[in-house]
Amino acid sequence: MVTATAAPARSVRALKAAFPLTLPVMAGFVFLGTAYGVLMQSLGLGAGWTFLMSAVVFAGAMQYVAITLFTAAFNPLYALAITLMVNARHIFYGLSLLKKMRAAGPFKPLIVFALCDETFSIICTAEAPEGVDRGMFMFFVALLNWCYWVLGSLLGVLVGGLLTLSTQGLDFTLTALFVVIFLNQWAKPGSRPSSLIGVVCSLLCLFLFGPELFIIPAMALMLVVFAISGKKLAGGDV
Amino acid sequence: MATLTGTALLITILVIAAGTILTRALPFWIFPPGKQAPAFVRRLENLLPSAVIGLLLVYCLRYVDIFAGSRGLPEALAVAATAALHLWRRSTLISIAGGTALYMALVQHVF
Known about the structure:
The complex is a heterodimer of chains A (about 240) and B (about 110).
Chain A: H1 7-42, H2 47-57, H3 60-70, H4 76-86, H5 90-97, H6 108-113, H7 117-125, H8 134-159, H9 172-186, H10 192-209, H11 215-228
Chain B: H1 6-30, H2 39-59, H3 73-89, H4 92-110
Helix pairs in contact in B: 3-4
């Protein structure tokens, strides 16, 4: 073996590099996860079903939509169609990470499985510090965020009724996280046209199609704009 | 209460999980590491990240109604505060903590 440091030391370094970046997600996920657990409990679905949803589906918005499927007639095909529609945005995450994920090595399947909005934003825009294994770094970002969500959900099922409302608004950490990441991208001059295209296409489609349906039209519109803009848009270094 | 129970519930959850995994893994299956992706896809790799972050920003504010209720004022003020803090100090945690604290104060005590 040519590696100078042992695997445990390497993982500790990767974990230490990943953890601070996930703190805002911790606050948001524990809060939103708890709210989800409370909701599942109120439907008569306890810790087991909640754990299954949060651990295996691991997609916040879809898990809330799934509640409407659980309270309707059994229709797996409809469930699949709704899932593909709500989660279509994930396809753009994969396309953005094709090259970067080659560094993920053996962790790639797990990272892809847990590629939620927040994990994508962090690993897409943050680099592992010098000397830190890039695959492990991305893996720990994904793992920590997954743990926050699963633990938050279980917390909601188990102690949900005891919580007061003083935490109302805590989920804004996730919005603030995207504001910060957006500004960090904006600071890279080459990426400004793409940032603007993303926001303008999304706002336009939000007004035209409403909050439930705008994502897929917005994605299509972005592709059209990128296609007709030809090579004029070089794209920033990411 | 949930109308689905037992096997029907389990099947529905597994279908949702499979659909979600499909959306996450599809690009990696279509364009495996060993194969050169088409030129447009390679260009997208540079163009999409910034655009998708913009999409996500709009996405997490999608239910804000500027014509009803608090008219999106708490969200607008808190986003502005987060951005101002970030441009000033460039510290992710200060920006997020400050913006969130303001938002919580606004929705709990003002609006």
